[in-house]
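User: My instructor asked us to take a sequence, write out its structure as tokens, and then describe one feature of it. I'm not sure where to start. Here is the sequence I was given:
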Amino acid sequence: MSDLNSDLNAEGAFYRKKLLLNMIIPGIFIFFMWLVKIIEVLFETDLSGFGIYPLTARGAPGILFSPFIHADFKHLFNNSLPLFFLALALFYFYSEVAVKVFTWTFFLTGMLVWVAGREAWHIGASGLVYGLASFLFFSGIIRRHFRLTALSLLIVFLYGSMVWGIFPGMYKNVSWESHMLGFFSGVILSVLFRKEGPQQPANDWLDDEETAEAGNEGDEIMNDEETTEKKSFI
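Assistant: Let's start with the prediction itself. The structure tokens for your sequence are:
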């Protein structure tokens, strides 16, 4: 019993450490989002000019800077919570490819908005949020991994209503292009990285059942032989 408890404690400590480590990158990213907004407020300045303005040279740097810029604290808060949860889920369950997926989602969404967005300043991390949600949902289904599929269902439960944000005219003063193109980026990346990271586990339980059935058949044969032997002695 003591060995079992020690194994459980060690396993629990391992997963707690993994969880904390996987919070680092999402936490740093969101820290800079809040830092930018605080700087705007303290210095009474507007940094929306560093957002994405499609098909212009002045709007190109926004591919890098726009996810850190938000219209107000409500906008920032609404993006911070889902981004932290989705990024944490990405780094926890897809640790082998998380950095690549996060980076590609960041830049691919920004580049697509710069190419295909309407003539306006596009700011905020919502495109990244949609990209991560899309990747986690479709990747779990494509891989047919039961835990990742369960994560896909959780994403639908928590953020399924986000799908309305990809349609034009649903919300005022919202970059639906960022939402739609972020969603599209997640789909692309879930396909491109489908063979990297966690894969569908082998059906070891089937092997166990087959072994158990073979053992049972062996026992039945032995029992029949013993019965035959007993009958021969009568």
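For the description part of your assignment, you could build on this observation: The chain is about 70% helix and 0% strand. Try explaining in your own words what that tells you about the chain.
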